[in-house]
Amino acid sequence: MWILSLALVLACAADTTDDRRTDLLEAVARYADPLSLAWDSTTTQVAWTDLNGDGRDDALVHLTNTDWCGSGGCTVLVFEHLDGLDAEEFGRFRIAAEISHVTGPVTVVEGRGYWRDLVVDSGSGLRRLRFDGETYPFSPAGGVRMDGPVKGKTLFADGQ
After folding, report:
1. 135: nearest Cα among 90, 79, 82, 93
2. In which band, very low, low, confident or very high, does the pLDDT at 95 lie, cut at 50, 70 and 90?
3. 9 vs 1, 15, 23, 57, CA distance in Å?
4. What does the domain layout of the chain look like in residue ranges?
5. Closest-CA residue to 127 (of 114, 113, 137)
6. 8 Å CB contact between 115 and 105
7. Mean per-residue pLDDT, 110-135
8. pLDDT band (50, 70, 90) for residue 17
9. Largest alpha-carbon pair distance within the chain?
10. Distance between CA 101 and CA 68 in Å, rounded?
11. Cα distance from N-terminal residue to C-terminal residue, the chain
12. What angle do CA 16, 21, 24 make, to 5 degrees?
């Protein structure tokens, strides 16, 4: 009996994960379609982490096809995970930032405020991007130059 219960719990968890990804990809489409920029879910990398300390995993979406990349790197979209009335009004995921010209992994580090900071490679060194209460900077150029090693959760390294 307990094996059946465990199987049911695991199946529900898998459905929740699949539903979460489906809801996220719908949010990406809602964001990208009015811009007339193509994207492909099969080449889109997704990383989950709680950026704002609310206990829910937010999503970073690394878009790597030609419409979202240029000589300076590719685009990372940041989506906040919503629930309750906000989710009913805006959908389960709401765009929080578009960061262009990202050339390597993104590292999530502790920030000064409500949201965690993101450290990205600008092509000429690491930059720390701080959430300003509404969004992250549009590109690494809007961040603070970093020297030395970075300690945090690294996303999109080695094709993750």
Report:
1. 79
2. very high
3. 13, 10, 21, 20
4. 2-159
5. 137
6. no
7. 90
8. low
9. 58
10. 9
11. 37
12. 125
